[in-house]
Specification:
The protein is an alpha+beta fold and 167 residues long. It is 22% helix and 50% strand. The protein is built from three helices and eight strands. Strands 1, 2, 3, 4, 5, 6, 7 and 8 form an eight-stranded antiparallel sheet that branches. A hairpin with a 2-residue loop joins strand 1 and strand 2.
Length: 167
């Protein structure tokens, strides 16, 4: 009789030890803490991008700007091919009215070079290309609304290409 009770308690404890971390993980992935984590911002297989409304899309040779509502997910907006020791300057004049939104610069191995939390302030991102490789300008959002305005300076030494929203 004591063995059966002991076995039932052991099973209950094991189930609790398994269920609590699973539930915690699910809640964590749906929080703003996870959206801003380096792991999420630099993932190789990003979540599907969803946007309720996007208008005034303007791709220029050196940047992109558009207004949006309800942006959730990730989008690699711009791909830069740079030669070693090129100085790259990115002007980020984006304005977010609500939600969470980040602009992230990634190297070809998806390591974060720099990131901006768009709610903080407008800023410039400057870095030197360490080697001949591609870099990505990524936007990551969760229920974000506002406008993205990103310009790449000194593009004469860079190959700049825009990545389609629907890819």
């Amino acid at each position: 009789m004591k063995n059966i009770k002991k076995n039932k308690l052991t099973i209950i404890y094991v189930l609790i030890l398994i269920i609590i971390p699973l539930i915690g993980g699910i809640f964590y992935k749906n929080t703003n803490f996870y959206i801003g984590s380096d792991r999420y911002l630099s993932c190789k297989n990003p979540d599907e991008l969803k946007v309720k409304l996007m208008d005034d899309l303007n791709d220029t040779p050196n940047g992109i700007n558009f207004n949006f509502t309800g942006l959730s997910g990730t989008w690699d907006l711009i791909e830069l091919s740079a030669k070693e020791n090129n100085r790259i300057t990115i002007d980020d004049n984006s304005k977010i009215n609500s939600g969470k939104c980040y602009t992230v610069i990634l190297d070809s191995d998806y390591n974060i070079i720099d990131k901006n939390n768009e709610l903080d302030k407008k800023s410039n991102i400057e870095f030197d290309a360490i080697k001949n490789e591609k870099y990505f300008v990524r936007v990551v959002g969760k229920n974000a609304s506002g406008s993205i305005d990103i310009k790449i300076n000194n593009i004469e030494n860079l190959d700049v290409s825009h990545r389609d929203f629907f890819k």
